[in-house]
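SAMPLE LOG
Freezer: B-3
Tube label: C17
Construct: single chain, 71 aa
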Amino acid sequence: MKSDMHNRIRKLLEKGYEGYVLVTCKPATGDGKMQVEMSYDGDPVLAAYLMEGAQEYLEEEDADSEMELLS
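STRUCTURE (predicted):
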């Protein structure tokens, strides 16, 4: 079940965008589990492209952070 906040953000994104991918998560519980929710709208190929771009961005950020720690 989607949380109220996730649904409100999703409705805002539906206006004026060709497509979007929304991923949200609640804080981890005591046993380390997180409730993760994902929604997308638009062409599924566009959603996949957005996800690939986001993954590449995060991997670059992670690599940059690792390089800073090693410096």
